[in-house]
Amino acid sequence: MYKSTSQRFREILKIFASYGFGYVVDNKLKKENNSPENLRKAFEELGPTFIKIGQILSTRPDIVPAPYIKELSKLHDNAYSENFSDICKIFFNEFFIKLDSAFSYFEEEPFASASISQVHNATLKDGRKVIVKIQRPDIAEKMRMDIAILKRIVNIAKLKISETFIDPEEALNELLIATELELNFYNEAENIERFREMNKDVKFLCTPYVIKDLSSSKVLTMEKIDGFKIDDTVSLLNNGYDLNDIGKKLALFFLKQILKDGFFHGDPHPGNIIVKDNKICFIDFGLMGGFSHSLKESLNDILIALAYKDINKLAAVVISISIKKGPINRNRLHEDIEYLYDKYLFTSLESIKLSDVLQDLLDMSKQNNLILPKELTLLARSLLILEGVVAKISPDIKIIDVAIPYVKENIKSSMLKDIDFDKLLINSLNNARAAAKLPSKFMELSDGLLNGRVKLQFELKYLNKSINELNKMTNRLVFGVVVSSMIIGSSFILNSNIGPKLWDISIIGILGFIAAGFTGLWLLISIIKSGRM
Fold first, then answer.
1. For the chain, which terminus, N or C, has the lower number of CB atoms within 10 Å?
2. Contact status, residue 508 vs residue 493, Cβ threshold 8 Å
3. Neighbour count for residue 342 (Cβ, 10 Å)
4. Amino acid 272: pLDDT
């Protein structure tokens, strides 16, 4: 039986105090020995739920200082195994069938035990090998109780905790969200299905499938993938694998996840990446990251700016996606970005201290009064992990060697692919109609001015001449809009490749471009002749 809330509250305070953190709730206690290492030890002594809390906090360098990130990252899920009879009860309560009715074989001893769940090997009745992830008994209630206690502690000593954590309230909110997601295995099942669907056409990738009939909020059954860990370079080489090829494919695939899909694996450490039958296989989808469409476009812009060393564009994008916390010195920002660019981009991954990259980016943003979106913190962590994997299997790969070909290969197609030609055509036609009404609107305006001349008591000389000039200007504007519409419409037709064709190119589209060219040329000549360029 788990302790009551009051008992657990006292236990947590006692353990925190023993490691030098008692001062946050008791002014009589001195602030001493409250090192990052001691916080890690306190979390370890407080048990599995605090180990998971520490692991979650270690993924958020934007709200936890670097020394604590480094120490909390050392927390490991080497938890004890639950009694097998309790595991059987959980499975029965979820599906109302016994384990031996669902599986022809189920290994009693788990091959992995974590703070929230443990994982067993099993075989389905049809012979397929699977792994079964089962949530620990009462773990949801225990974690929610511990987080509720932490909330009380934060409310009691918010200012003192701020000395350790950058934003204790935000850290607590992130804990609440992250734990609820991890406690519901449906989320991981949906992540697997989404990842699998998005990458079904990637020939060098494989994703495990979910056994939906044997999955719930507390149980997840999925395909078992046997192979070599991606960092087992000896076995990979002995079996004829090209490590450079694997490294490039892994890097390019991660770029696809970020820049095309906007949905990426949040924990790509070697234990979660397997190589089997010349395919890269990701497993464990409990931690995934995602971006909005606008943030994904901004990340594409960042990569393009990096690839072409466009410091101005890079600075503009960084500012546009950040939360401004004060005045921004653009010159300083440009200098900082250029420094980071030169420091990391052309350096072999083997030579980079990857833990420093993230800290430099965070420091640069903070020093320039900018807070990057929280989604980027998980991305930065994932990139650090992945770059470490790539550096081990293929240390000579440079970021620029992977990024620039990716940009050049995709930028031209994506520029046209991402354009909604229907929407552009409709907007252009609407603008043309609106522009066509401008002469009558100007006439209404001039009539109003003429009718109100006596009341306003001023004389508008040469009004007719002005109106004629205005009409000419409006006509040119209308022609300009029409030319633009013809160009967009012709682009749409060529892109769709409809109608009669010449050399497999739409004749209508070609004629549209020719007509637009002659009309535009006539318009340009008329403007030049008028002497009003």
1. N
2. yes
3. 11
4. 92
The string of pLDDT tens digits covering residues 185-235 is 999 999 999 999 999 999 999 999 999 999 999 999 999 999 999 999 999
Region 103-123 average pLDDT: 94
Over residues 389-400, the pLDDT tens digits come to 888 898 877 666
Residue with tokens 């449906």: 186
**DSSP letters for 520-532:** HHHHHHHHHHHT-
- The least confident of 297-306, 387-396, 520-529 is 520-529
CA distance 329 to 525: 45
Domain residue spans in the chain? 5-77+143-182, 83-136+184-224, 227-418, 421-530
CA distance 376 to 302: 12
Structure tokens at 61: 């360098």
For 423, counting Cβ atoms within 10 Å of its Cβ (0-12 exposed, 13-18 middle, 19+ buried), the class is exposed
pLDDT bucket at 104, cuts 50 / 70 / 90: very high
Residue type present at position 331: N
Q: How many CB atoms lie under 10 A from the CB of residue 311? A: 16
What is the rounded average pLDDT for all residues in the chain? 79
Cβ pair 243, 233 in contact under 8 A? yes
Length of the chain: 533
Quote the CA–CA distance of 47 and 115 in Å, as a whole number: 8
Query: How far apart are the C-alpha atoms of 118 and 140, rounded to whole Å?
Result: 14
CB 60 within 8 A of CB 174: yes
Name the architecture of domain 83-136+184-224.
2-Layer Sandwich (3.30)
Residue 420: the pLDDT is 54
User: CA 418, CA 415: separation in Å to the nearest integer?
Assistant: 6
* Long-range CB contacts for residues 294-302, cutoff 8 Å, separation at least 24: 295/262, 295/321, 295/373, 295/375, 296/258, 296/259, 296/262, 299/258, 299/259, 300/259, 300/414
The 3-state secondary structure of 400-424, one letter per residue: HHHHHHHHHHHHHHHHHHCCCHHHH
The one-letter code for the residue type at 171 is A
What predicted TM-score, i.e. pTM, was given to this entire model? 0.71
Token pair listed for 37: 């290492």
Alpha helices (H) in 264-353, listed in sequence order: 293-307, 311-321, 330-344
Q: What is the CA radius of gyration of the chain?
A: 31
**What one-character DSSP code corresponds to residue 34?**
-
Q: Which of 170 and 125 is assigned the larger pLDDT?
A: 125
Res. 306 pLDDT band, cuts 50 70 90? low
Instruction: Return d(Cα 445, Cα 263) in angstroms, integer.
Output: 53
